[in-house]
Amino acid sequence: MLFTRRLMLGLAMAGSMAGALAVPAMAEGPTEIDLFFPVPVDGKLARDMGTLIKEFNETHPAIKATAVYTGSYDDTLIKTRAAIKAGKPPSAVIMSANFLLDMQIENELTNLDPLIAADGTTKDQFLGQFFPALQGNAVINRSVYGVPFHNSTPLLYINADKAKEAGLDPSRPPQTWAELTDWAKKLTKREGDKVTQWGIAIPCAYDYCGWMMETLTMTNGGRYYNEEFGGEVYYDTPSMLGALTWWNDLVYKHKVHAPGATPGPAVSTSFISGNAAMMMLSTGSLTYVRDNAKFNYKVAFIPRNVRNAVPIGGASLIVPAGLEAEKQKAAWTLIKWMTSPEKSAWWSRATGYFAPNMAAYKTADMVDFLNKNPDAKTAVEQLDVAKPWFATYKTVPVRKNLEDEVMLVLNGKKQPKEALVAAQKAADETLKPYNAETSLKLP
């Protein structure tokens, strides 16, 4: 009897289990991921991002991505680091490309090599999609840590109507610093002691100011930093001294540039309003200028003093460290989609940034767009003389060591040589701990 009761109980339990297995499992919801994104330039980038993510979610029902606006590039770095430290990292971030080295040093990035390999491709094949000039900020110690998303070079913007009024030919823009100085003098207008139109405007605020100093230093034959090692910057050098002196001369000697340190949005506003006849600004502002300028304009390469050269700007897509596998995989799906030829081309047309994926320029929509808007070709053509954006240990503090001093110069409170000596000293102090653990740590 005992055996019979146990047998019946066992059969009943087995039946219950079989019944449970026969009931369809509740479908799991989509993998939810966050994308941190900054808005570093003028325009409607936040709205465009909403459009992009909406399309991704509609075409990828297994993933639900949420775009989270995080402010400037610097703000985005701060918020990403805080989230990582709190154990709640976002799944993907549009991160300023020159922050990647610093983040890798601090173990805050996911090495993307395994994700690339899991797709059955090689690093060389994967990186081969993108313009070679962009790879310097994406690859660290031979591994991929970032995927180029929206990138830029600085451009010279010219109010073509005002140039013609001054007897200048906008189809033959200035090629050298000397020519640019001459153009700026002819384009500056005064009523007595009051300037009613500045010849040139160059932005100087945190982040933009460092990029502009790198631009001018490179066109003066110099290097901003050691591209092979994150512990050295070259602030107190003849090439940077010449660059800052020329910028200072535009303000206080030639008086064709407004005094003071002017943020990027104020520079573009000045140009759009006609208060400045030329400006140096990112190609990321090109769509904003195209949509808002009530005059004919031209864009051109940054003029040189010694050589044609510009730094890459803009951002890469990264996967922060500390993500669970499911979210990491979903983030990688999003990143590949956003950097595909079609989406890369769409983003370029919407924002003004050039498309990092070379195949974007072969898509039918992009070919048609460039035929109608040839000004969008200039930044891409300038890639032939482009090099990586500066990247060091403690990138932001080291950059601000220089920017603080440049702002003092443009505000008339310091001379260029004095400022650069101080900037070098401060940067060397900031870099000291890293150098102590690397280049100065001897066997």
User: What structural class results from the helix and strand content?
Assistant: alpha/beta
Distance between the termini: 81 Å
Strand content: 5-15%
| Strands, count | 14
Rg over CA atoms: 26 Å
Number of helical regions: 18
The 3D shape can be described as globular
Helix content: 40-55%
Q: Describe the biggest sheet? A: 5 strands, mixed
Low-confidence stretches are: 1-27
Q: Which strand order do you get reading across the main beta sheet?
A: 2-1-3-13-6
**Average predicted confidence as pLDDT:** 92
Describe the structure.
InterPro entries: Bact_solute-bd_prot1, SBP, TAT_signal. Keywords: Periplasm, Signal. Belongs to the bacterial solute-binding protein 1 family. Residues 1-27 form the signal peptide. With 443 residues, the protein is α/β, with parallel strands linked by helices. 46% of the residues lie in helices and 14% in strands. It has 18 helices and 14 strands. The strands form five sheets. A five-stranded mixed sheet has the order 2-1-3-13-6. Helix 9 crosses helix 10 (238-252) and helix 17 (395-410) runs antiparallel to helix 18. The radius of gyration is 26 Å and the shape is globular.
